């Protein structure tokens, strides 16, 4: 049977890549977004804000992908409020929750005492976003009532990067490829996300991906 998935905040660029990848593989995809028109490849579309979603809206799906994104100081708190709302309505259900996470919280040492966002060359303009995404991960670690997976991209997350179809699956630590790079395109990230939905077993774990 084909997987039935929902993607919330479907209008975002990562969300659209995930939707396209899932549809390409024959998934039955329902997109939830704030705009009136469906701007995605999803077969079904519901105009609804994340905070207006109910348990009934998400019942019956195999997985829900949370593609919420924000940049400004006014909208960054939305990371936590939207994630907690999704956790509330998915609590105790068999529906998986996969979160488009950040790279700033990836550990840069084996002892797991320092993270990428603390590196001297980490751009100041990305620190508030990294902090907001890290807070979500911290909160998710407390949720044993939800089947969540937090998917961190590589440090260089490229919106218009090519779809190579190859990636390295990592865990809690910043992973570099054979060229000493931490880079992934949105398209390859989407492949990893859909792979995790399709056959992954990383329940209540953070995983990470980098271009092979």
From TrEMBL:
GO molecular function, one term: oxidoreductase activity, acting on the CH-NH group of donors, NAD or NADP as acceptor
Domain of life, source organism: Bacteria
CDD domains for the chain: BVR-B_like_SDR_a
Matches recorded under Gene3D superfamilies: NAD(P)-binding Rossmann-like Domain
InterPro entries, sorted: NAD(P)-bd_dom, NAD(P)-bd_dom_sf, Polyketide_Oxido-like
Record-annotated NAD(P)-binding domain positions: 10-195
Protein name (database record): Putative NAD-binding protein
Source organism of the structure: Megasphaera elsdenii DSM 20460
């Amino acid at each position: 049977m084909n997987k039935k998935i929902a993607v919330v905040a479907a209008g975002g660029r990562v969300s659209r890549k995930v939707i396209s990848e899932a549809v390409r593989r024959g998934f039955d995809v329902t997109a939830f977004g704030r705009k009136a028109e469906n701007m995605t490849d999803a077969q079904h579309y519901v105009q609804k804000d994340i905070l207006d979603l109910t348990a009934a809206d998400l019942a019956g799906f195999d997985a829900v992908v949370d593609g919420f994104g924000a940049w400004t100081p006014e909208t960054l708190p939305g990371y936590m409020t939207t994630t907690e709302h999704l956790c509330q309505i998915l609590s105790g259900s068999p529906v998986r929750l996969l979160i488009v996470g950040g790279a700033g919280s990836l550990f840069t040492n084996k002892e797991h005492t320092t993270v990428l966002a603390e590196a001297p060359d980490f751009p100041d303009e990305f620190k508030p976003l990294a902090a907001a995404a890290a807070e979500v991960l911290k909160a998710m670690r407390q949720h044993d009532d939800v089947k969540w997976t937090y998917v961190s991209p590589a440090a260089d997350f490229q919106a218009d990067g090519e779809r190579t179809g190859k990636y390295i699956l990592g865990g809690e630590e910043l992973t570099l490829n054979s060229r000493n790079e931490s880079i992934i395109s949105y398209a390859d990230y989407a492949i990893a996300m859909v792979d995790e939905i399709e056959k992954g077993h990383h329940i209540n774990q953070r995983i990470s991906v980098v271009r092979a």
